[in-house]
Write a structure and sequence with these properties.
With 216 residues, the protein is an alpha+beta fold. The chain has one domain: 2-Layer Sandwich (Peptide Methionine Sulfoxide Reductase, Chain A). Helices cover 26% and strands 19% of the residues. The protein has five helices and nine strands.
Length: 216
């Protein structure tokens, strides 16, 4: 997406929307006793990714930002030529006793991002819009690797699952005007066309995962 004078313009011509697929629970998903954990996930434009995960029960907070490049290029205007290395991503702080890491991945690939697309999601293309999983520890890496294999072998998608598991470098929070964008701009054209359907799909497919009020 491109932000111009408070309005949205898609960078590319509209493409086919992401698939909405009710995926199975993660077969490998060890219990974590800690009350707080962090997940970093990329799934295209961070507005919709943040908007969906803020409605997941057990999520404490969600922050939009950049992962994969340097501090010098961790700015919205510097990520759109595809050379920064950054992906638009979100940092999800969650309570593992209420929602597991595997469940977060299930939500990501069921209603947020199409795991068969390379360097694009929805109307946006470029490496900055890649879907990716960024494990924060060995257990998250184990769950991520196993879940990608699980959904890849399950024939849930017409094409191969190609999402990378990336090593954590550093997460850089996005500018203030990109935070909580869906909630603050529900009538925005991009939100209405591309992101609101993702939230509606979450509520339809996984009603027991939806919290009453969105997390900050």
């Amino acid at each position: 997406m491109a932000f111009v004078a408070g309005a949205l313009l898609a960078q590319c011509a509209p493409a086919q929307a992401e698939s909405i697929v009710k995926l199975p629970a993660a077969a490998v998903d060890p219990a974590v006793k800690a009350k707080r954990a962090t997940a970093i996930l990329a799934g295209g434009c961070f507005w919709g990714v943040e908007g969906v995960f803020s409605h997941v029960k057990g999520v404490v907070s969600v922050e939009s930002g950049y992962h994969g490049g340097s501090a010098a290029t961790a700015k919205y205007d510097l990520t759109h030529d595809g050379t920064s290395g950054h992906a638009e991503a979100v940092r999800v702080v969650y309570d593992p006793t209420q929602v597991s890491y595997g469940t977060l991945l299930r939500v990501l690939f069921s209603v947020v991002a199409d795991p068969t697309l390379k360097n694009r999601q929805g109307p946006d293309s470029g490496t900055q819009y890649r879907a990716a999983i960024v494990p924060m520890d060995a257990t998250q890496r184990q769950v991520a690797t196993a879940y990608l294999a699980q959904i890849g072998k399950g024939n849930y998608f017409a094409k191969p699952v190609i999402v990378p598991v990336e090593s954590y470098k550093r997460f850089y929070p996005a500018e203030a005007n990109h935070q909580d964008f869906m909630r603050r701009n529900p009538a925005n054209g991009y939100i209405v066309r591309w992101d609101a359907p993702k939230l509606a799909a979450l509520k339809r497919l996984y009603p027991t995962l939806v919290r009453a009020n969105p997390a900050p």
